[in-house]
From TrEMBL:
Gene3D superfamilies linked: 6.10.280.130, Cytochrome c-like domain (1.10.760.10)
GO terms for MF: electron transfer activity; heme binding; iron ion binding; oxidoreductase activity
Residues involved in heme c 2 binding: 187, 230, 233-234
Record's protein name: Cbb3-type cytochrome c oxidase subunit
Cofactor: heme c
PROSITE patterns per record: CYTC
Annotated localization: Cell inner membrane
Keyword terms, alphabetized: Cell inner membrane, Cell membrane, Electron transport, Heme, Hydrogen ion transport, Ion transport, Iron, Membrane, Metal-binding, Oxidoreductase, Repeat, Respiratory chain, Transmembrane, Transmembrane helix, Transport
Cross-referenced PANTHER family: CBB3-TYPE CYTOCHROME C OXIDASE SUBUNIT FIXP (PTHR33751:SF1)
Length: 303
């Protein structure tokens, strides 16, 4: 903080501190010095003011005055060794930021030493190691639970990591890539290109792919519209495309809600989602540990 002060502020603070210390010394000296006609130390003094206002005054004990002097000497010593006079850093060179960096480096060294025990091991192997899973659970709580929930079951707009439905693939390398590089999911809006009646039938088809509540002719028309409008991302069979992160529409798992209105909102107005990249904040080993935790959470490790 001191490094941010300009010369004027440094001078102001230094003068203010020195003047206060000198003022304290003067006050101690002025109150402790003997006065003409004053009784001996420890004697009670009965002062009379305005003829009838009396004040009983006991002199301050000498040890108390000495304690004040020691306090001032300590303050002077502190200002020599530690920062307190503007930009003067003190002879020891101590600073809050320096102490913070030192402690952070110590914690980081301990952290690196701990995670080094998991270096060089693949995701599947780590998923079967209970010590690794326990370490990964703490990483998950710190980095993932805010979006995916403490148990990984997600919420609207945030994928459930505890099932076997995967937007970008369930292979260990794919999970590692999602964590390290992040993902950007985009569903374009079709409000301007879909006729309302056609949109209603398309939504009915998607909401119940196996048995859509549509007459045969309208169902065939909706399926044809799906092939033209949606199949490029979601596939002809609506089972999705992990390369694009396009979800499977033929099951009952919905990232943004499966009600008719929620699906309509998705189709007509689109959706956007972002999984942040973690390769700048987590080491390679930590990313593999997280991938192993998700891999195990989804039940893939039991197969």
């Amino acid at each position: 903080m001191n490094e941010m002060l300009g010369p004027a502020w440094t001078a102001f603070i230094s003068v203010l501190v020195v003047v206060n210390i000198i003022g304290c010394l003067w006050l101690i000296w002025w109150t402790a010095r003997p006065r003409v006609g004053e009784e001996a130390e420890g004697a009670e003094k009965n002062h009379v003011w305005d003829e009838d206002l009396k004040e009983l005054n006991n002199p301050m004990p000498r040890w108390w005055l000495n304690l004040f002097v020691i306090t001032v000497v300590f303050a002077l010593g502190y200002l020599v060794f530690f920062p307190g006079l503007g930009n003067f850093a003190g002879t020891l060179g101590w600073s809050q930021s320096g102490q913070h960096d030192q402690r952070l480096a110590t914690v980081q060294a301990q952290r690196d030493a701990f995670y080094a025990t998991f270096d060089g091991r693949d995701v599947v192997e780590l998923a079967g190691d209970l010590d690794a899973v326990q370490a990964a659970s703490r990483l998950f709580a710190d980095n993932c639970a805010g979006c995916h929930g403490p148990s990984g079951q997600g919420a609207l707009g945030f994928p459930n990591l505890a099932d076997k439905d995967w937007l970008y693939g369930h292979e260990p390398a794919q999970i590692v890539a999602s964590i390290a590089n992040g993902r950007q999911g985009v569903m374009p809006p079709f409000l301007a290109t879909l006729d309302p009646a056609v949109a209603d039938d398309l939504i009915a088809l998607v909401s119940n792919w196996k048995e859509p509540p549509l007459p045969q002719a309208r169902r065939a028309a909706a399926e044809q519209k799906f092939k033209v409008t949606c199949a490029a991302c979601h596939g002809q069979d609506a089972r999705g495309n992990p390369l694009l992160g396009a979800p499977n529409l033929s099951d009952d798992i919905w990232l943004h809600g499966g009600s008719t209105e929620q699906i309509r909102q998705t189709v007509m107005f689109g959706r956007q989602g972002a999984m942040p990249a973690h390769k700048q904040r987590l080491s390679e080993t930590e990313i593999r540990l997280l991938a192993a935790y998700v891999y195990r959470l989804s039940g893939q490790a039991d197969q």
